[in-house]
Design goal:
The protein has 389 residues and is α+β, with helices and mostly antiparallel strands. The protein is built from ten helices and 20 strands. The N terminus is likely disordered.
């Protein structure tokens, strides 16, 4: 099917978001409505954005360098999950808590020094209860020392283009030279959201952390919004005297997933209220419309020298637009797929699909093979010859 696929979609749009300037890894949207002026009044900095496109719908001092307390653990967890996946480390791996790890103050799982814990349990305690001792134990296990782990955290920040971020420790405990900003926190949190296991931990409200000695520590989620805000399924809180109350959360309603960051609020109660208000504003005024979902059929195309005459090609990724309620938009798919030759493996790129938004190119995604198609052998060629004689 080598033709335009037209999807008439009633949606929301104030401006074509495809060519918005980028700041700190997120795209700026049009200026917020007048009603947004009452948002995040006590927070030193805040940002509300669409997770899929990075479109910012509210911002306040988003590049100001500030202490972010335990939201530092967003990068700690991101790096840990990345390394576990890259190295093929089992979550059942045993981690021995060092004297250094067990000596951490602040929020803790109260690890026993020189005791053995599953990596899975340590990560869970970091996400749920912001355990500083577990952070250090994981850092030492993965990199040999906290110093090497923190160096890798800064390397990851540089890779993500986080120009207003510097890490000095992996816990967020007060230490000179450590800072980030709302825009950078949003970017690193989006990276953490790529790991499904994070959501498994983040939705836990309360649980008992069992120590090898038989002792049990009851842990409660520091992010109360997972229980009290509709659609919230993940986040990371933080508090120190210097940073005040901080939080980053994600919430999903329908097809729309938002990320919200607040830094330096007066209290946890005020912080949760202001984040809830920002999320309410986003869900009330914006929504996500999809041009195509990953795996949707783009068409059936002829394939040369294949055991099959045709092959199904599908979208290699989602493509959505974050648009404003009350407006309308038209999304059109324009496939560019030709000259497919066997052999083909499932997932092979066979062309591209341009996503057009109101006549402008908004995005481009890969078009990939839905299944394998082997190349014809001599026997196949002979059988075709005989059949067509």
């Amino acid at each position: 099917m080598n033709k335009k696929i037209l999807l008439g979609i009633a949606a929301v749009l104030t401006a074509v978001v495809a060519f918005m300037p980028i700041i700190g890894g997120v795209a700026r949207a049009a200026k917020a409505e007048t009603s947004s002026q009452s948002l995040a009044t006590t927070s030193k900095a805040a940002i509300l954005l669409d997770s899929a496109t990075g479109t910012v719908v509210f911002e306040k001092n988003i590049t100001e360098r500030l202490q972010i307390a335990s939201m530092v653990k967003i990068m700690t967890l991101t790096l840990a999950f990345d390394e576990i996946e890259k190295r093929g480390i089992s979550f059942d791996s045993i981690v021995t808590a060092s004297e250094n790890a067990a000596s951490m103050g602040g929020s803790q799982a109260f690890l026993d020094a020189n005791a053995d814990y599953k990596l899975d349990e340590l990560l869970k305690s970091i996400v749920v209860a912001s355990a500083n001792d577990s952070c250090v134990a994981v850092a030492e296990y993965l990199y040999g020392s906290v110093e090497e782990f923190v160096s890798a955290m800064n390397g990851k920040a540089a890779e993500l283009g986080l120009g207003n971020t510097n890490f000095v420790n992996c816990t967020g405990l007060p230490q000179s030279g450590q800072y980030s900003c709302a825009a950078d926190v949003a970017v690193m949190f989006k990276q953490l959201m790529c790991h499904e296991r994070f959501y498994d931990y983040a939705k836990v409200w309360m649980y008992d952390f069992a120590h090898p000695s038989g002792r049990v520590t009851g842990l409660t989620n520091t992010n109360k919004l997972i229980r009290f805000y509709e659609g919230c399924d993940g986040g990371k809180t933080g508090y120190t005297d210097e940073a005040r109350s901080c939080i980053t959360v994600t919430a999903k309603r329908g097809d729309t997933r938002l990320i919200c960051v607040a830094i330096g609020a007066e209290s946890s109660k005020t912080r949760n209220k202001e984040v809830s208000e920002m999320l309410n504003y986003g869900f009330a005024n914006y929504k996500t419309v999809y041009a195509v979902h990953k795996g949707d059929v783009i068409g059936e195309y002829e394939i040369a020298n294949g055991k099959s005459d045709k092959i199904v090609v599908v979208a290699g990724a989602d493509s959505s637009a974050f648009v404003k309620c009350g407006d309308s938009a038209e999304l059109v798919l324009e496939p560019d797929i030709s000259n497919i030759c066997a052999p083909v493996k499932e997932g092979d790129k066979e062309g591209t699909v341009s996503v057009m938004l109101n006549g402008n190119k908004y995005a481009e995604i890969d078009a990939v093979a839905a299944a394998d198609c082997a190349k014809k052998g001599y026997k196949d060629i002979l059988e075709d010859f005989i059949e067509n004689w």
